[in-house]
Amino acid sequence: MEILSGVHIVDNVVMPGPGGANSVNIVLLAGDDGRLTMVDAGPPGAEDAVCDYIGKIGYQPADVKRIIVTHHHVDHTGGLAGLAQRTGAEVWAHREDAGFIDGSVPRPPVVFPEDRIRAFMPEATPEQMTEIRKRMEQGMKAVPVRVDLRLSGGEELAVLGGCTIIHTPGHTPGHLSLFLPCRDLLLAGDLMRYENGVLSGPPPGFTQDPEAAQASLRQVSALSFQHMCGYHGGFLSGNASNQLRFDLEKM
Ligand SMILES: [Zn+2]
Ligand SMILES: [Zn+2]
Fold first, then answer.
1. Sheet holding 185-189: strands in order across?
2. Is residue 163 predicted with pLDDT exceeding 90?
């Protein structure tokens, strides 16, 4: 779906959740150079849906010039190896997450917090709990991928009138957000989520340094943007940075 001129969310990409499949937002930026920039690469198995969508909007996989990964988590990098291969694109990530992506640093284990599972299955027995965890962990494995460019934050891209890469640590040490002033848009990765009319910060159980994440939220709240697209949840259109400033105290 094209949410703003030249800004697409790939249709039909889902990941396993405790209550069933949840959709995620892989973004494609269709720049005026005839090439595409992809932001995040989906969970394992997302490759076909992404390539189908690229065809649907009149491009080919080889038109993807770069894949920018907001952070190393497997729901963002599970499809990366396959997509890097099928597109020939460069892989860009923040230097503090790059080692988890290329396999030179072991990924911290993913532990699905009990309360997140209980939110969907309040009556789950310990056996069911183990079963659900096993199913989710099996669906969430990523193979190492070469990182072509290690970012620090502050880089500028000539895409859609300009795009600034912002280091927004906390959820992971190398988490990135992308700011596109000409589209009035912040791509927030897992820094923010908008769902059922509520704007929230990164998920507590999966966030490495909540204080740093809070500082990152403050940092982006100083920007001005109408629209916000996080990787999970919906697209917030209209007054997004004002809403963030208003809601920040509750996060
Ligand atoms: Zn994450
Ligand atoms: Zn995520």
1. 156-157, 163-167, 176-180, 185-189, 227-230, 235-237
2. yes
